[in-house]
From TrEMBL:
Keywords: Hydrolase. GO terms for molecular function: hydrolase activity. The keyword Lipid metabolism does not apply. It comes from Halomonas saccharevitans. InterPro entries: His_Pase_superF_clade-1, His_PPase_superfam. This is Histidine phosphatase family protein. Its EC number is 3.1.3.-. Pfam families: His_Phos_1 (PF00300). SMART domains: PGAM.
């Protein structure tokens, strides 16, 4: 799965690969795991996620990354570690790539995402139920790319993150209203989108 988007203000200095982590134990259990208290040390990759990554790496179709930055959640760290081992690269921990915090929905069924997304569609700045606002997620995710653009040139950089933050980032980079982030096709686990 690969899409290409232009930067907001001209040509990218670097080539970016945005990767959603592989299928996780939270996906397997159908639970929302978005807090550092649970996500940093628990709910890593599921056996299915490990298989997905083995398949992806055996048939790698993108440019070889020179840098890998990843969310500090266990599922993204384990995903990034597998890619880094394949390419013999070191990793950079980047907490701004972490999962969107879903507040009072933490630990509940992932069916509850739909309630948050319905509110997002009306107001991307809402924080009802302690949920991190779409606008805040977009700002922190975009800040990572902006910083990389200032410091590097002509590199292929892999960013390993989570479904909702990546959907939000891609919506922002497309110049679309953030309230429309769920109108994009959902990113599959272990998928890569090329910028």
């Amino acid at each position: 799965m690969s899409n290409t988007f232009p930067p907001v203000d001209g040509t990218w200095r670097n080539h970016y690969l945005l990767m959603r982590h592989g299928h996780s134990q939270a996906n397997q259990e159908g639970r929302i795991i978005s807090s550092p208290a649970l996500g940093l040390t628990g709910f890593g990759l599921s056996p299915r996620g490990c298989t997905q990554l083995d398949t992806l790496l055996a048939d790698w179709r993108w440019a070889r990354p020179q840098r890998i930055l990843h969310s500090d959640f266990l599922r993204t760290a384990e995903t990034a570690e597998r890619v880094a081992a394949h390419f013999d690269l070191t990793l950079t921990l980047e907490p701004r790539l972490r999962e969107r915090h879903f507040g009072e929905f933490e630990g509940q069924s992932d069916d509850r995402y739909a309630e948050v997304w319905a509110r997002d569609a009306k107001d991307p700045t809402h924080r009802q139920g302690g949920v991190e606002a779409v606008s805040e997620v977009a700002a922190r995710m975009r800040a990572v790319i902006d910083e990389l653009e200032r410091h590097y040139h002509d590199e292929t950089i892999l960013l390993v993150s989570h479904g909702d933050p990546l959907q939000i980032l891609l919506t922002a980079l497309e110049g679309r209203e953030l309230s429309l982030h769920r109108e994009r096709e959902p990113l599959a686990p272990a998928s890569i989108t090329s910028l």
